[in-house]
Amino acid sequence: MDNSIKDIILKAKAPGASMEQQDEFLSLFQQADKEFALKEFLFGDLVNTTVSENRIPYFNDLFEKFWIRRKYESKSDSTQKRWLVLTAQLAAILIVGLLLGSYFDVFKKTATTKYYTSITPRGSVSQMILPDGTQVFMNAGTQMKYSVDGQNNNREVFLSGEAWFHVAKMDGIPFLVHTSMYDVRVTGTTFNVKAYPEDKDVITTLEEGRVCVKPIENSKQATEIQLNPGEQLIYNKELKDIHVQEVETKWVTSWKENKLVFINMSLSDLAVLLERRYGVEIEISDKGILDYHYDGTIKDETILQVLEILKCTLPIKYHIINQKIVIQKK
Fold first, then answer.
1. 18-52 burial, b for 16+ CB within 10 Å, e for fewer?
2. What SS3 class is residue 285?
3. Is the pTM of this model over 0.85?
4. Residue 323 φ then ψ, to 5°
5. What is the C-alpha R_g of the chain?
6. Tens-place pLDDT, residues 222-247
7. How far is CA 280 from the centre of its chain?
8. Contact 175, 156 (CB under 8 A)
9. Neighbours of 249 (CB within 10 A)
């Protein structure tokens, strides 16, 4: 065990720890070479960790949902092997999140709220648990800035990209998601926000609970809008127009299960989706095919398999030039 890491953590947890000592502790999570030593200490410290009462219901609920799913999914040998890996990964995420929450309970900051940034590169999906117990999945090409605590007990994130949230309920302390076009305010609920800067729409989809959406610039709907489960709010950046519709939420949030479901999606939008999912660059050389539409589901297929499926379904062809995928009319 690296004694320097142990000293940093113990100093940060001690009553009256300085801002510099706390920042030094948080910086450990950004250093790849410290990963194993840090996890070793966190797992050891778990034995002596007491979860604060306001987090217990959330973690109990999360573990229960996880193990119900684990039992349901483990019917085939291949699925069992895959879940062995996922179980270990999720356990590590839960433990780190739980410990961080307990650590921040003893951090008595007197300065203004500080923010930390998490980035998910194109071609991947990541998951994390915030110190308040909120579970977050971040889609490819997403950046999220979040506060861990502050003198006003702020719970807020600034989102650029797409994320799914299961917000831990904390009485009197709402959870805020800031996008470029509007804010989403909740107390404890499950929802998805898609807010990529390059997309024409900012979309919020509610699975459970209730959220309030408040536009932050002039639009045809200037007042706060409340969503019910199964509803989706779409804000068009160009028209500054808001539309609310009912949707099948499992299709909208399937990306966090490494599955994409698209219905009547234009080829131009599909190309953007594939770029994010696979971390590739796609060029559509014939603009006349941009409005072709496609229905389908992507689960475990490679990018080349997806392109072959598209080629058999739509009148297109493709070739690869210097690691760029060029799509043309057949």
1. eeebbebbbebeeeeebeebbeebbeebeeeeebe
2. coil
3. no
4. 65, 15
5. 22
6. 678 999 999 999 999 988 889 999 99
7. 20
8. yes
9. 19
